[in-house]
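User:
Care to share a sequence and structure tokens?

Assistant:
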Amino acid sequence: MYNLLISNFDFRRFKKFPAQVAINRHEERYNRVMNIALIGYGKMGHAIEATAAGRGHRVTLRIDNDAPWPERIDADVAIEFTTPSTATANLLRCLQGGMPVVCGTTGWYADYGRVVEECMRLEGRLFTATNFSIGMNIMFALNRRLAELMRGRDDYRASISETHHIHKLDAPSGTAITLQEQIVADGGRDKEGVPIASIREGEVPGTHTVVYDSETDTLTLTHEAHSRKGLAVGALLAAEFLATAQPGVYTMEDIL
């Protein structure tokens, strides 16, 4: 498991139970109907709902924007995709209500330590990721290995570009920040030496590119999402995992 460097907060010390305990139970969830609360009902919320139905699950609650919350959430797990300014309050509300919560919102990581502390105090369950796409998480692993191979190769200039739809509120994306922090940690480079270019255009689901450029050649690593379905599938895999996991804080590395 890698440390989420975004907040400089090492959540690994809060793992009360081995991740393998929850992993061993993962297959059970494919034979069970899961009731889901969607916190955020925008395009990602709709994509998750459509994908959940195909996996045999039910969405029993939809909360969007400033809609009132019910006194009790009748669900096995909540999936939160909202905005950077509302995510922290949403996560705390779920945890304080005893609801396991999967968070796909990015841009709220300044509060990450506080949310994790509250999760562990309440013995809750929290699953976070800067990107839920299986392909993107494979790229994370490739990015770390490539950074290791490029360590000390100052003749190669590293950079990152990310392109998203015009509705995305945070820039750079949480995914790009993760890529950057991996290169800094595993490649021994300064953060300033790995610039991120953010582009917002049309309805692009998300494209991330890592480039190592030298006078002699260029090496490029790219992940291009074709739709939001990959994120929806990953979020549901996380929800299936979390619904019967032990208390703790989890990431995509726990299910891959």
